[in-house]
Amino acid sequence: MPEDVRADYDEARAIIDSSVRGACALLRLATEKLVLQHLQRDGGTLNDRIGKLVQNGIAPQIQQGLDTLRVIGNEAVHPAELDLRDDAETAQGLFSILNMMVEEAITRPRHLEEMYAKIPERKREGIEQRDRRALDAGDPA
User: Fold this and answer.
1) Which of 23, 83, 98, 123 could form a disulfide with 12 if both were Cys (CB 3.0 to 4.6 A apart)?
2) Closest to 12 (Cα-Cα) out of 75, 79, 96
3) Which segments in the chain show pLDDT lower than 50?
4) Closest residue by Cα to residue 37 from 73, 78, 7
């Protein structure tokens, strides 16, 4: 987990027993930092940036997780339909979701890149040529 995201995550963990709403709000802030600083740097609101991630092909589960954190975190600060004052179970669920988002969007891709980089360059070039041929064969133009 990136350090800037981790700081808010740890603060949320420290206050959950005294303020569920505060913990949820901090997890929403951590999500915003994750998206704005690590996943989608192009401008706009958090909602806009999640939409851009969708346009770029992000997995539906990651979109759902990010939107869950965004909406429930907003509800903690600006209650409309959810009352999170005593809902520690939902807050605990948000911790789990944020961990999953980091795992899926940052940790796993980084691990795969590191392992792929261990393939000898000549072999990687062959893989890239294969993929270009496959893409060209599928291109109707």
Assistant:
1) 23
2) 96
3) none
4) 7
